[in-house]
């Protein structure tokens, strides 16, 4: 019998079949690994191109139409240089075919609520203010696989997508000279040592200051010149003198945002002498005022008004000091609170002056009613937004005679239960202190708060692109509209935390 030999022959044939099948499977897996690796390389190359394009475009965004144009050009050129070339099967596309203009979009946030909120290039050029993020999508296409087409398994397509930009800091490109370079101190306001209030860089919360006059007297600026700062200049990017004009700065004054870091010790660059019309118009959008001389692109969608546009102006009218304080103060704003720092009458409290102003100059901007002497007995509207910070206890409005010994001596007329009139009700509930803009839904909270850089400038002398060191960022509440005649005033409301003040260009997805 040949049974054993036959079985052996049959087994030998089975091994050959198994080896053949294994080889086919191994080759198939090898093909898959090679093709998927090829896909990974292509995907990585495309993503690198998108990342590089987005980053190069983001650094050009400066709130202007020219910035949008430059961002598009840089994104296209950078993507073209970094694309995944065709030597591994990807079509070697050139020019706009790789990154067409419709694949580049812009937004004021890297995470819009709706994808449709991304603006195309034309819309971004029409309203460039606040657009500090760019989204880049490379063209997608089929990748030629080497082995998979044999089995018609894969139809491989891929692309790259990236978003880059920076969250602009909530700092208007404006600077104010500090009254005292010391960051903060506690000042005693009567004979009780527990009765002290906090002073930050010489400013006291709840008091409105004439920012223009302070810069004029302490910084040596010519009358009428605010201390404007370059909104996009940093120690890394440098300062462009040809951007020192009102048209370039207006969108940043309007939105109240810029690339200024505001971190203590960082540098800002001066940009003085801007045109009064566009600059003042940009600030006053907070009061629902738009149109010439401000550019029409800076409307309520880009620069929304405050929810309460009622002005608090010394004198007659709704929101005026006659509604808020009695006797009615004459001043628009205090310049330097100086003489009263000697202490309340009849006490031996020694409160050294926080700074020494030029002789005879304590307040400024007297209204038509006039005032006598150096006007130290006249204040603007107090506490319309913020109260002084007490070392212990809580300040009441009846503390005014002690806190401001040469100011108002009676209780305020305001009878609301809220701490400040600014937050008091709705127009329909209390039109004296509250006025909503139209349309109401266009408003944004606290738009009347200007965050401005605090600098030590005993002698500024003006100039464009002059570096100055940041001491801090102060919040000033605009009690009233800014005008060329009355300049710019604001009620001090404290310092902005440094955690909110560090912008950087980076990838977001």
Number of helices: 8
How many structurally independent domains? Answer: 2
Calculate the mean pLDDT score and round it. 74
Uncertain runs are 85-95, 336-377
**Helical percent range?**
10-25%
Strand content: 15-25%
Shape: elongated
The main pleated sheet reads as: 7 strands, mixed
Q: What kind of oligomer do you see?
A: single chain
Name the helix and strand elements from N-terminus to C-terminus, one letter apiece. Answer: HHEHEEEEEEEEEHEHEHHEEHEEEE
**Class computed from helices, strands and strand pairing:** alpha+beta
Using DSSP, what is the number of strands? 18
Cα-to-Cα separation, first versus last residue = 76 Å
Gyration radius, rounded: 32 Å
Descriptive account of the structure:
The structure is a single chain. This protein has 509 residues and is of the alpha+beta class. Helix content is 23%, strand content 17%. The protein has eight helices and 18 strands. It has helices spanning 3-58, 65-82, 121-126, 211-219, 246-255, 276-283, 321-324, 400-403; strands at 104-107, 133-137, 141-143, 156-158, 161-165, 174-177, 184-188, 196-200, 203-204, 208-210, 227-228, 267-271, 331-334, 363-366, 449-455, 464-477, 489-495, 506-507. A hairpin with a 7-residue loop joins β7 and β8. α1 (3-58) packs antiparallel against α2 (65-82) and α5 runs parallel beside α6 (276-283).
């Amino acid at each position: 019998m040949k049974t054993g030999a036959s079985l052996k022959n049959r087994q030998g044939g089975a091994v050959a079949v198994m080896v053949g099948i294994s080889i086919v499977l191994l080759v198939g897996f090898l093909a898959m690994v090679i093709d998927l690796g090829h896909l990974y390389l292509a995907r990585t190359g495309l993503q690198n191109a998108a990342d590089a394009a987005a980053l190069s475009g983001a650094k050009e965004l400066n709130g202007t139409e020219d910035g949008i144009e430059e961002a598009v050009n840089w994104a296209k050129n950078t993507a073209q240089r970094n694309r995944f070339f065709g030597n591994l099967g990807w079509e070697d596309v050139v020019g706009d075919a790789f990154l067409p203009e419709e694949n580049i979009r812009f937004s004021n946030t890297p995470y819009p609520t709706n994808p449709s909120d991304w603006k195309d290039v034309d819309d971004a050029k029409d309203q460039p203010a606040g657009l500090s993020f760019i989204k880049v999508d490379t063209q997608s296409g089929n990748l030629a696989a080497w082995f998979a087409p044999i089995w018609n398994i894969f139809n491989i397509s891929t692309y790259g997508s990236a978003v880059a930009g920076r969250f602009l800091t909530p700092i208007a490109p404006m600077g104010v000279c500090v009254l005292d370079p010391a960051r903060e101190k506690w000042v005693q306001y009567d004979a009780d040592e527990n009765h002290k209030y906090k002073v930050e860089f010489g400013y006291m919360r709840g008091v409105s200051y004439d920012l223009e006059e302070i810069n004029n007297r302490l910084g040596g600026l010519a009358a009428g010149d605010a201390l404007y700062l370059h909104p996009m200049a940093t120690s890394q990017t440098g300062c462009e003198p040809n951007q020192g004009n009102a048209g370039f700065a207006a969108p940043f004054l309007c939105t109240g945002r810029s690339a200024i870091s505001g971190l203590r010790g960082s540098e800002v660059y001066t940009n003085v002498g801007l045109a009064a019309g566009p600059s003042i118009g940009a600030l006053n959008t907070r009061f629902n005022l738009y149109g010439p001389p401000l550019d029409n692109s800076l409307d309520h969608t880009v620069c929304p008004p405050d929810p309460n546009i009622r002005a608090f102006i010394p004198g007659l009218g709704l929101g005026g000091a006659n509604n808020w304080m009695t006797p009615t103060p004459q001043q628009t704003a205090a310049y330097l609170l100086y003489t009263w720092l000697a202490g309340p009458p009849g006490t031996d409290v020694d409160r050294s002056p926080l700074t020494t102003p030029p002789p005879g100059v304590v307040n400024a901007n007297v209204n038509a009613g006039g005032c006598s002497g150096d006007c130290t007995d006249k204040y603007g509207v107090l506490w319309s937004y913020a109260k002084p910070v007490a070392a212990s206890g809580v300040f009441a409005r009846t503390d005014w005679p002690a806190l401001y010994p040469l100011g108002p001596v009676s209780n305020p007329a305001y009878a609301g239960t809220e701490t400040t009139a600014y937050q008091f009700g709705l127009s329909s509930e209390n039109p004296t202190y509250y006025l909503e803009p139209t349309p109401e839904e266009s408003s944004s909270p606290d738009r009347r708060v200007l965050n401005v850089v605090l600098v030590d400038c005993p002698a500024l002398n003006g100039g464009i692109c002059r570096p100055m060191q940041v001491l801090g960022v102060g919040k000033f509440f605009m009690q009233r509209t800014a005008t060329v005649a009355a300049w710019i005033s604001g009620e001090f409301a404290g310092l902005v935390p440094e955690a909110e003040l560090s912008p950087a260009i980076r990838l977001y997805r």
